[in-house]
Amino acid sequence: MNETHGDTIMRVENLAVHFPMGGGLFGGQRRWLHAVDGVDLELKRGECLGLVGESGCGKSTLALSLLGLQAPTRGRIILDGHDVSGSAGKDRKDRARFAQMVFQDPYSSLNPRQTVRTTLEAPLRLHGVTSRSEIDDRIADVLKHVGLRTDQAERFPHEFSGGQRQRIGIARALILRPKIIILDEPVSALDVSIRAQIINLLLELKETLGLSYVMISHDLGVVEHMSDRVAVMYLGRIVETGGWETIFTNPQHPYTRALIAAIPDPFSRTTGVKITGEIPNPLNPPTGCGFHPRCPEARDICRIPPAPLLEAIAEDHLVRCRRVGEFA
Amino acid sequence: MKIRANLLIGGVLFATVILAGILAPLLAHTDPVMDANLMFAEEPPGGEFWFGTDAQGRDIYSRVLYGARISLTVGIVSQLINTVIGVCLGLSAGYWGGWWDDFVNGLTNLMLAIPSLIFALAIMAILTPGLTSLLIALGLTNWSFTCRLARASALSLKSQGYVQAAKVLGYGDIRIMLTQLLPNMLGPIIVIGTLGMGGAVLAEASLSFLGLGIRPPFPSWGSMLSDARDQITTAPWISVFPGLAIFMTVLGLNLLGDGLRDILDPQSRTRRA
Amino acid sequence: MSQKPLLEVENLRIDLSIGDTKFPAVQDVSFTIGRGETLGLVGESGCGKSITALALIGLLRHPLSIGGGIIRFDGREIQSLSPAQMRQLRGDRISMIFQEPMTALNPLSPVGRQIAEMFVLHKGASWRDAERQAVEALASVRVPAPERRVKDYPHQLSGGMRQRVMIAIALACSPDLLLADEPTTALDVTVQAEILDLIRDLCAERGTAVLMISHDLGLIANMCRRVGVMYAGRIVEERAAEDVFRAPSHPYTSGLVASLPLLGARARQGRHRLMEIAGVVPPVAAFPAGCRFHPRCRASTEICVAADPEVTLLPNGGSVRCHHHE
């Protein structure tokens, strides 16, 4: 399984990121936090993969290791046929030309002391583009793509509104012409009336520039609208993955169902099936299926180790649940 | 924009001292070292000697002017050394963390535990007294506050999205520290540096007063005060004028530091509309 | 309605002082809430929804101040009350929960004591009785093992648990009105669903009226019977919740509804390009003249620039503030 399909741009195999907790100078038991615990993913060219889950599910850590900012404990990341699973940092510069990121907060994600031009020009120079005319052309080009005027390049971030700042953040992610962009909650910090502009822009850019997205979001409406495929994460593992239509119209894992039911329905004042309890401490995960303490469908079998496997129940639909066949 | 009073007064005081130092050869009436004349010893301030003369009959006005050169050199150069050391250690410790951070923290705490003047005294005792030794002694002993400030700023800035973005764009660590972190922490560091300059001027005066700084007969405000000890009741002007010069310089630097803090504080800038 | 409403707000104006100039951050805002009723205020950041709630509970601080209008709670004008009378009212008859419960709870006091304080303060209970009632209050907000949890400090609890404690404090004295300002924005979706259920159930049980404030139109429509849509310091449309999504009347509301990627929409109708509302939300100091939405409005004409639209009553109940309402 070394070679990748022609249409697969990124493949993640059995990726795990464990953090040491405690221990240190005065002893104490050193424990391991399994932030990402054996994740398999495949991103196809031109696709948007929605990564869904609640806080602490490991989606942000996963994104950092895809970008080379967090060394995986084990597993492989294959970008466009090349295994890049080395330690974090070393290949940062190479990976920068391949994968970029758009951040959640348009305020803290731009350096307040750099003009838009500096923000866009410095990475180009770092990556060997030195001719003045080429730099100017590429900056003008990327600004046009995100809907900003060239003369706005001389301004500082505080002169822009939140939506425009997010456009600058997108321009920065595009300037090195990457193939993959990780979108980390790209609209959740924006005003509601501005979100549609950015969502439309991202979808257009995906088409015109042939980009592939990994989008982290907790807003299921946005995920449904933008994604081609969806992966649902819980406690460091993928619990269900499939095409967007499968996940949103025929969810099988009780957690996916609960997530969808938890979104308030504006057309009725009733509520769906709810789950109770809180996300368990990842330092002390439940035995067996990680979701069983909150699962309305849990039986004794769910508490017995090992954790259930992610199994295909249909074409391109994988679910990690022992009882998946038993409920309608 | 309204100019703040502290910035204005501090700036004027500091500029006066700088001008006095630079223009000393033009403004001075006599050579500060050579023109001793016991005929005019301990003359009170008056027509010929504006600030009076000292026990050796040297013109205090001229010596105070030349003293500004020494005080400013010590203040600026030693504080520059402190700032560079403090920023390098603090910035890298805050950004990298881990054992390096532990080490720098330990070193900083050690420096804070020893009174810096005692430390400088010890260094001066080992080195031969003189301007260079003084610069080294004061430049190596006052970086702990700058270091702590740089470390704390780096800790809070490194989680900002734009630092993450720079990593994603393939920037190396040193480049990130210099282009992303440093410009955003410079304001408070300049403030601490300016305030520290006043401290260095005082420290030079103290060391020279104790006889471990600038050696006589070269005019330093501290050594002038030291020389004037015996005449403090009989000829108070010998100590009053260098003392006043120290007071004005340190006050000017402190006001300037406060004023800079006001305008460099990011809180006072317009942020989210 | 034979009975007088619980809360009447008439032409409320809230001023924001910048230097010597006062800008109306909220202007001509009027609404009523009956006993046990739920009203939602929805809008974007800076539209004035949160400061309206703060005005109701008498917590506006400089640079904000009430610049005019009447707030009548249970027949009494709130502005005429002394600070001591206002304190009596707060927590006992009107209470409030916030977005970030950590900042609203005292970090140095066990949560049980913070709940018990409400009974001591407002009901004259002894501390011993109050502590016992605090356990019951925690149980009522569905905190497991409440007799042990009362001894916990806020930092020992998760975000969801802290918000439950806040709700327990807010509802301790069975107030007539609960102000909920983005109570679930900081929480995960599954926890949000539980907290919303809790607010809905407890308030229905005790007959507590709710003013729910959020930027999430879907959440407001789901939780409230009536919805007021705020834009740039005004209520631009007030409707029954179900009408807001089905037949929005103000161009801002219809623009918002069309711009939302609603869950299930793509499965039903395929992927459409989302409607965009052009421009940006204006800051308080730069609210436009005339209709405040006109620079961003598709239907805008000369009259929208020239004249401020009056409130128009709609035939099926509700009201709208627009020259060209649908």
From TrEMBL, chain A:
Catalytic activity: glutathione(out) + ATP + H2O = glutathione(in) + ADP + phosphate + H(+)
Top-level taxonomic group: Bacteria
CDD domains according to UniProt: ABC_NikE_OppD_transporters (cd03257)
Keyword check for Cell membrane: yes
One GO biological process term: peptide transport
Enzyme class per UniProt: translocase
Chloroplast is among the record's keywords: no
Any one Gene Ontology cellular component term annotated for this protein: plasma membrane
Subcellular location(s) of the protein: Cell inner membrane
UniProt-listed Enzyme Commission number(s): 7.4.2.10
Main location, first listed in the record: membrane
Complexes and interactors: The complex is composed of two ATP-binding proteins (GsiA), two transmembrane proteins (GsiC and GsiD) and a solute-binding protein (GsiB).
Topology with respect to the bilayer: Peripheral membrane protein
Known function: Part of the ABC transporter complex GsiABCD involved in glutathione import. Responsible for energy coupling to the transport system.
Sequence ranges assigned to domain ABC transporter in this UniProt record: 10-260
Protein name: Glutathione import ATP-binding protein GsiA
Keywords carried by this UniProt record: ATP-binding, Cell inner membrane, Cell membrane, Hydrolase, Membrane, Nucleotide-binding, Repeat, Translocase, Transport
GO-annotated molecular function: ATP binding; ATP hydrolysis activity
Family assignment from sequence similarity: Belongs to the ABC transporter superfamily. Glutathione importer (TC 3.A.1.5.11) family.
Membrane-crossing segments per the record: none
TrEMBL record, chain B:
Sorted UniProt keywords: Cell membrane, Membrane, Transmembrane, Transmembrane helix, Transport
Pfam families reported for this sequence: BPD_transp_1 (PF00528)
InterPro entries associated with the record: BP-dependent_transpt_permease (IPR050366), MetI-like (IPR000515), MetI-like_sf (IPR035906)
Transmembrane regions: 6-28, 117-141, 185-214, 234-256
Compartment list: Cell membrane
Domain ABC transmembrane type-1: 68-257
One GO CC term on file: plasma membrane
Membrane topology: Multi-pass membrane protein
Biological process (GO), any one: transmembrane transport
UniProt cross-references to PANTHER family, sorted A to Z: OLIGOPEPTIDE TRANSPORT SYSTEM PERMEASE PROTEIN APPC, PEPTIDE ABC TRANSPORTER PERMEASE PROTEIN
UniProt similarity note: Belongs to the binding-protein-dependent transport system permease family.
Name by which UniProt lists this protein: ABC transporter permease
Provenance organism: Microvirga brassicacearum
From TrEMBL, chain C:
MF term (GO), any: ATP binding
Superkingdom, taxonomy of origin: Bacteria
Entry annotated with the keyword Transcription: no
Name of the protein described by the UniProt record: ABC transporter ATP-binding protein
Main subcellular location of this protein, as a coarse class: membrane
Any Gene Ontology CC annotation: plasma membrane
InterPro entries linked: AAA+_ATPase (IPR003593), ABC_Ni/Peptide_Import (IPR050388), ABC_transporter-like_ATP-bd (IPR003439), ABC_transporter-like_CS (IPR017871), Oligopep_ABC_C (IPR013563), P-loop_NTPase (IPR027417)
NCBIfam families, alphabetized: oligo_HPY
PROSITE patterns: ABC_TRANSPORTER_1, ABC_TRANSPORTER_2
Alphabetized UniProt keyword annotations: ATP-binding, Cell membrane, Membrane, Nucleotide-binding, Transport
Keyword Transcription regulation attached: no
Ranges of residues in domain ABC transporter: 7-257
